[in-house]
Amino acid sequence: MAAFVYLLAVAAACLGVSVGESLNIKFLPCDSSIKTTGTIISANVDPCSKFPCMLSADSFYNVTVNVTVGQTVTAGLVKLQGKIGVYLPYPGFDQIHFCKQLIGGAECPLKAGQNVLYRSVLSFPKGTPLSILPDVIPFRWQVIDSEGGDDILCFKSEVGVNKQSG
After folding, report:
1. Does the CA dihedral 155-156-157-162 come out positive or negative?
2. What is the pLDDT of residues 7-22, one digit of tens each?
3. Burial class (CB in 10 A: 0-12, 13-18, 19+), 60
């Protein structure tokens, strides 16, 4: 079941080469219980040609998130969670250092109001049982201040599961 969440890494998301069409995905702010100081400008998945992006077991997905931070950020951790009844952690995606995945020359510490691009490469782990996953999985992408524990950024979206590929 945790393997399902691994596909959710689409959220966020991309060190890699573009291999197809890319799409700015639809997203919403996280629930009001998660108080953030920053703003998500856009989230892009490559390859993806329509929303929700269909993820396959044998593919890699580049995720680029354009954000404006609302506070000084010296260090942050990215959390990616998929929702199957409740939000579950995406395996291996709970200790990703936000500052190490910035592109375009940005470096931490970031200043309040600074606009930056974050990029990750995501894929399903080998052996993910796609057949037991829902056709569409909601996910949540967060950046948490690793020093103070505050939520810096957060958005929700969803991905589709290509069950023919697994």
Report:
1. positive
2. 333 333 322 333 468 8
3. middle
Task: Give the residue from 49, 44, 51 showing the smallest Cα distance to 12.
Answer: 44
Provide the 3-class DSSP secondary structure of residue 30.
Answer: coil
Please, which residues bridge with residue 155 across strands? 29, 141
How far, in Å, CA of 66 to CA of 105, rounded? 14
For 21-44, give one letter per residue: b (16+ CB within 10 A) or e: ebbebebeebeeeeebbbebeebb
Quickly list DSSP for 79-130: EEEEEESEEEEPTT-SSEEGGGGEETT--SSBPTT-EEEEEEEEEPPTT--G
Structure tokens at 22: 């890319």
Dihedral pair phi/psi, residue 142, rounded to 5°: -130, 150
The Cα–Cα gap between 103 and 124 comes to: 23
**pTM of the entire predicted model:** 0.80
